[in-house]
Amino acid sequence: VGTLVEKVDLQWAYRLLGFGPVVLVSTTDGEKGDVSAVAWCAPAEMDPPVAMLAIATEHKTYENLSRTGILGINVPTAENVDLVMYCGTKSGHEVDKIRDGNIPVRFGEAFPSLPLIDSCAAWLECKVLPGTEAGGHGIVMAEVLAASCRPGVLTRNHIWDVAHYPTLHHLGGPHFVVGTRIVSGR
Ligand SMILES: Cc1cc2nc3c(=O)[nH]c(=O)nc-3n(C[C@H](O)[C@H](O)[C@H](O)COP(=O)(O)O)c2cc1C
Fold this sequence. Notes:
Blueprint: E1 6-7, E2 23-28, E3 33-38, E4 41-46, E5 49-56, H1 60-68, E6 70-75, H2 81-87, H3 97-100, E7 105-107, E8 115-117, E9 122-134, E10 137-149, E11 167-172, E12 175-179
Antiparallel strand pairs: 1-10, 2-3, 2-6, 4-5, 5-10, 6-9, 7-8, 9-10, 11-12
The structure holds flavin mononucleotide (FMN).
Residues 22, 34, 36-40, 54-56, 59-61, 84-85, 88-93, 170 line the site of flavin mononucleotide.
């Protein structure tokens, strides 16, 4: 679709995720892709980069990632708020969200079958590691094998440029805080 993408060295992959944005998790069942909103996602290790996600075991996303062992973490910005709510309120068990929603995707570099959501600002391609379950949620450990972002998302200091790429932070329901300003301690 022509989105400009720059590769992110794996040592900085956690900087795409470490400040708590809501994400879109993309998966495939082998034929059909799916994408779901996930607020419960955070870095868990730097070297190698690993993220942890809490995903309800009844979701199509969990079925897919368990079957294929891969998932994409796509980091949206404020302009994607309707997409986040769409992906977070429809299930791949019932609908083909990518097709019905006309969601532009491209495919992974580490995993050519993995759909990535083109309108997002950063992308992490992950391999699923052994995890555990907490009640109805699978605690998914995901090792990042490739990372990329739109040019300029990470500044020269590898800090997310929230002024130009404002992120969404989930408050509950359809409500989000938008991150736009950096304050720096000494
Ligand atoms: C803003 C937002 C955040 C969400 N965060 C999570 C989450 O962290 N974990 C989860 O299992 N579901 C979460 N959900 C719910 C799923 O996105 C939703 O149930 C979705 O329909 C699952 O789709 P799937 O069956 O295609 O995987 C969230 C929904 C919204 C709107």
